[in-house]
Structure formats: structure tokens, C-alpha cells
Amino acid sequence: MADIAALVSDLKAEQESVDELLSGRSDEDWGADTPAEGWTVAHQVAHLAFFDGAVTESIVDPDAFAESLKVAKADPDYTTTVAGPLVQMRPDDLFALWRSGRQPMYDAMTGAPAGLRTQWYGPPMSVASACTARIMEHWAHGQDIADTFGVRREPTDRLRHVLHIGYRARGFAYANRDLPVPDADVRIEVIAPSGGTWVFGESETDVIRGSALDMALLMTQRRHRADTALEADGPLAEEFLEVAQAFAGKPGSGRRPGQFPPAA
User: Fold this and answer.
1) Looking at the domain assignment, is residue 118 inside a domain?
2) Locate the Mycothiol-dependent maleylpyruvate isomerase metal-binding domain: which residues (predicted)?
3) CA distance 189 to 195
């Protein structure tokens, strides 16, 4: 059984890392364009704030969340729609709103009944999966903010959560592009930030190797493969690096080759 308290602790740490990127920033900084086309820093925080609230509601008030799902299914631009009003807030107020939603989310997750599966915009998921998804989202959107301000973040072993989701979502990544899902597995062997090797999958013939950071950046589409040092052996490994997607929703356009060249 997943250790929800430990997952929530990692989520808190990931949110605090994004908080550090934002603290003391000017209103002009909040209006800066990020690498995600059409998204400013304020859009990034608005997105995080709204969906933190959504996951809390999915746990504590599933009936209300079910109603919001109907709205989401009827609006192909739901993510943009819900962020709109929040982006119009003063940056200090938006910052405070995002911060204020954290403890209620932690409390909802740690207080949820054992075995609860929450509704979501995709398939229902466990509370542990919901928490892991929020860690991934904060890391990925935090990367956009860090890239906007030219900040290099030190990777942590919380990246394991990002890779776990990205590997588990392999079938989704194919189906999301209307591609047939391969029957065979791939294996991912990466070097963790703290040293040692993390392994996902069991294939002996299709293997991806590199750093956990590069794999997380690729799975969240924050780096083009050309700007990583990832290596693939086997056609399915090569293919997965082209379609990998750790997040829900439509396939993104990702980043351009050479947009973030590796440091020399």
C-alpha cells in the first residue's frame, strides 16, 4: 500500500520549490511569456491553483466534482477557460490563492478512506496516483517557470514520481495519438539524482538509458529529445521517446530542437 503521508511530503516539497521561484517576483515577471506557447507565468500558477482545488473537490465532494466534469467534457478548451479568470487576478492575489489551496489538498489526501478511487478528467484514480500526478504537474510547470527566469534547478529524487507516471502512461501516450499500443514492453534505465539506477519495465530488447532528469524533461515535453543525452536501443524504445507524455490532455507540441541545448 502506498505511503500517502510520504507522497504528500514530496508534493509539499515540490510546491515549495515552485514557491521559491516566484517569491519576490515583480508583476512584470508574472506577465512574462513562458516556453509554453500562449502561457505566461500567471497562466502556469493559475493552472496549478485550479487543478489543486479540483483534486481536493474530487476527494471531499465527489458530487460537485461530477458536475464540473460535465462542464469539462463540453468544453474542448476547458483548461484555458478555467484559467482565464485567475490570470486576471493581481499576481499577489493569485499567489495567495495557490498557496491557500495546499493544506486543504494535503488534508483531503491524508484523510481519504483507504482504497478510495477519485473521479478525474481521465479514468478514476487512487489517492496515491492523484498525489503523484500533482507532484509531476508542479515539477513540470515549475520547469517552465524556471526556464522563463533562466534558473537551473537541482534535480531531486522526486523525479521518480514523474518517471513512474510517464512509464505507466505509455499506453495512453500511443492511444492519445490514435496509434496502436504495442504489446511488448520497454525498459527504462536511468541514473537517479542521488546516484544509483532506477529501472522501469522489463524488456531485454528495447531499452532507454540516460539521466532521470533528461527522461523527466522528455516525458513532460519540456525538452526535445535532441537536447537530451538519452539513448535508445530497439525500435519500441526509439518510438517511445517520440510519443512519451506524462500528463493528461492532448499531445503537446513540446519544445523545439536546440531550444534548450545542454550545458557544455
Assistant:
1) yes
2) 12-146
3) 12
Of the three residues 128, 149, 170, the one that is the final residue of a domain is 149
Range of the domain at 38: 4-149
Residue 215 lies in a domain: yes
Q: Name the β-bridge partners of 118.
A: 125
**Whether the predicted pLDDT of 250 surpasses 90:** no
Instruction: Convert the chain into a string of H (helix), E (strand) and C (coil).
Output: CCCHHHHHHHHHHHHHHHHHHHCCCCHHHHCCECCCCCCEHHHHHHHHHHHHHHHHHHHHCHHHHHHHHHHHHHCCCHHHHHHHHHHCCCHHHHHHHHHHCHHHHHHHHHHCCCCCEECCCCCCEEHHHHHHHHHHHHHHHHHHHHHHHCCCCCCCCCHHHHHHHHHHCHHHHHHCCCCCCCCCCCEEEEECCCCCEEEECCCCCCEEEEEHHHHHHHHCCCCCHHHCCCEEECHHHHHHHHHCCCCCCCCCCCCCCCCCCCCC
Give me the number of domains the chain comprises.
Answer: 2
Where residue 185 sits, what CATH number does that domain have?
3.30.1050
- Are 245 and 219 spatial neighbours (Cβ–Cβ below 8 Å)? yes
- Say whether both 30 and 137 belong to one domain: yes
Per residue in 50-60, pLDDT (tens digit) is: 999 999 999 99
108 phi and psi, to 5 degrees? -65, -40
Confidence of residue 264 (pLDDT cuts 50, 70, 90): low
pTM assigned to the model:
0.96
At position 95, the amino acid (one-letter code) is F
